[in-house]
Write a structure and sequence with these properties.
The protein is of the alpha+beta class. It is built from 5 helices and 8 strands. Helix 1 (41-64) packs across helix 2 (66-89) and helix 1 (41-64) crosses helix 5.
Length: 320
């Protein structure tokens, strides 16, 4: 007789007794925070100093190259629009005072300088300080405006901020220099190029006019002297308005190779702001994170570095 084995029990079938309790939840281990390094004031101060140094060096290099050229182009466009408007209204300056009788402010546009042989087309501003020459060539305030009887002096930079007078030494004798002022369009003809030690030209007499262009000479960004280009007026002389500043009545900062000592205050203030921003960046780096700090603090440090280095540039020789 064959015995049949019972069928296997169905797991899904109900069983007698209460269901088994679920397994207890696995206990999670407490999250371990990354320990922060101990505070080191000396190291934080050194980091802030490095940030300041890096921002100033980067800003200084940018101001003397790309950023400086872009700023020069923007300032020239603004000055051209202003001079064009004044010429159209008949209020362009013809002397040391404006149409309201006030002394011209440094940086006010006074003429449009064009040298076809060099492809140069620049607005000339009043004054020859380092700050004024960042925007383009400047007219020496104690000399006559171009087109008038006597000697007019215009100074420009050799390398930095657009380098408008970079090729001034290549200007051949006989080249034409065209200038537009509130009195008309005087034209000059180059008579020679002078360097240190060369013979001085004869004084201007008999109601004639002369234009002298000045810039630095020497290796790039390291001026060792100045170069002068003299040109004689070949168009009719314009009237000379009364003058307040006589020859030599200007500060040393407006002389050739002069430096603007008044820029020290701006250097101090911008450096102070840059140091505070660097200290905040170092503190944020410790409590916030690396990338978050650089994303937020990087543009601020760069902007302050550009402003600080611009003020430092004003302490360098003006025709640099």
């Amino acid at each position: 007789m064959t015995t049949l084995a019972p069928p296997p029990a169905d797991a899904s079938a109900p069983t007698d007794g209460p269901p088994a309790p679920p397994p207890p939840p696995t206990a999670r281990e407490p999250r371990q925070e990354t320990p922060r390094p101990p505070a080191r004031p000396g190291l934080a101060l050194a980091g802030a100093a490095l940030c300041v140094l890096a921002a100033v060096l980067l800003g200084f290099a940018a101001n003397l190259t790309i950023v400086g050229h872009l700023q020069h182009a923007r300032d020239q466009q603004t000055a051209y629009d202003e001079l064009r408007r004044e010429l159209a209204l008949g209020t362009a300056p013809v002397g040391q005072r404006d149409y309201e009788g006030k002394l011209l402010k440094p940086g006010a546009p006074v003429a449009l300088l064009k040298i076809p042989a060099l492809g140069l087309n620049e607005v000339v501003a009043e004054g020859t300080t380092s700050e004024v020459l960042m925007a383009g060539p400047g007219h020496r305030r104690d000399t006559l405006l171009p087109g008038q009887a006597g000697t007019s002096v215009v100074m420009g930079r050799q390398w930095a901020y657009g380098s408008p007078f970079l090729d001034l030494h290549k200007l051949p004798v006989g080249s034409r220099i065209e200038i537009t002022t509130g009195q008309g369009k005087p034209v000059y003809e180059v008579t020679g190029v002078r360097r240190a030690g060369d013979e001085l030209p004869a004084p201007v007499t008999g109601g004639r006019g002369r234009l002298t262009l000045i810039t630095a000479t020497g290796a790039p960004y390291t001026p060792s002297g100045v170069i002068r280009v003299d040109a004689k007026l070949i168009t009719p002389v314009q009237p000379n308005p009364p003058r307040d500043l006589q020859s030599g009545w200007i500060a040393d900062s407006e002389q050739a190779l002069g430096t603007d000592s008044g820029a020290w205050l701006a250097v101090f203030l911008w450096s102070q702001g840059l140091l505070i921003a660097a200290l905040l960046a170092v503190f944020s780096f410790r409590v916030w994170g690396r990338w978050q700090t650089w994303i937020c603090a990087g543009p601020l440090l760069l902007a302050l570095g550009l402003a600080d280095s611009r003020a430092i540039t004003a302490l360098l020789p003006n025709p640099l």
